[in-house]
Design brief:
The protein has 125 residues and is mainly beta. Helices cover 0% and strands 51% of the residues. The chain has no helices and eleven strands.
C-alpha cells in the first residue's frame, strides 16, 4: 500500500557529505511522519532523524544532531537526509520508514509501519 525506496548512498571520505533520498509511492496520502534509521554490522537498528511531511518539524538523535538534517518535498513525494561531516562510525545501511498513525515523527522503530530496503553508506577514514 505504501512503498519506500532509498537512494543516494555510496562511499565517501570522512568529513564528506551525502544526501539520501526516500521516494514514497502508493497511498502517499496515508502517511505523514517519516523517520530515518541506520544499522551497522553487529549493531541494532537505530534512529537517526525524523520529519513530519506536513509541518517539516524534525527530531534528531544526539549522535547526528548538528551534522544531519532531514527535509521533504511533498510535490515529489520524497524525503531527504542531508549528511554532513560524516564519520567512519556513520557507516551503515540507512533506511527510511513511514508511520500511518502519527503526524509527528517518533524515534521508536515499532512505531513505523512501512520500511524501505535501505541504502549503504560507507565512510572511509
Amino acid at each position: 500500500q505504501v512503498q519506500l525506496v532509498e537512494s543516494g548512498g555510496g562511499l565517501v571520505q570522512a568529513g564528506g557529505s551525502l544526501r539520501l533520498s526516500c521516494a514514497i509511492s502508493g497511498r502517499t496520502f496515508s502517511v505523514n511522519a517519516m523517520g530515518w534509521f541506520r544499522q551497522a554490522p553487529g549493531k541494532e537498528r537505530e534512529f537517526v532523524p525524523g520529519i513530519s511531511r506536513s509541518s517539516g518539524n524534525q527530531i534528531y538523535a544526539d549522535s547526528v544532531k548538528g551534522r544531519f538534517d532531514s527535509s521533504r518535498d511533498n510535490t515529489k513525494n520524497t524525503v531527504y537526509l542531508q549528511m554532513n561531516g560524516l564519520k567512519p562510525e556513520d557507516t551503515a545501511v540507512y533506511y527510511c520508514a513511514a508511520d500511518r498513525d502519527r503526524s509527528y515523527p517518533s524515534s521508536v522503530r515499532s512505531d513505523y509501519d512501512y520500511w524501505g530496503q535501505g541504502t549503504q553508506v560507507t565512510v572511509s577514514s
